[in-house]
Amino acid sequence: METVYVVKGMTCGHCAGSVTQEISALPGVENVDVALETGKVTVRSEAALTEEQVREAVDEAGYELVGVA
């Protein structure tokens, strides 16, 4: 399953790394790809994640989940 989210506030490689690390820790996540230019985060997972799970991970990294792209 692949879902694209929009995250606000990421401006550099460190930001992308923090978001990737937090989302990757969620159960079933196989891959996380961050596009800084667009703020889009593509998450591939074994099963669907809830938006709340992703929001909590993004919040933990210090950024804001805007929603699903």
UniProtKB/TrEMBL annotation:
GO molecular function: copper ion binding
GO biological process, one term: copper ion transport
Domain called HMA: residue spans: 1-66
UniProt keywords, alphabetically: Metal-binding
UniProt-listed InterPro entries: Cu-bd, Heavy-metal-associated_CS, HMA_dom, HMA_dom_sf
Family matches, as Pfam families: HMA
Gene3D superfamilies: 3.30.70.100
Keyword Protease listed: no
Family annotation (CDD domains): HMA
Protein name: Copper-transporting ATPase
Organism of derivation: Glycomyces albidus
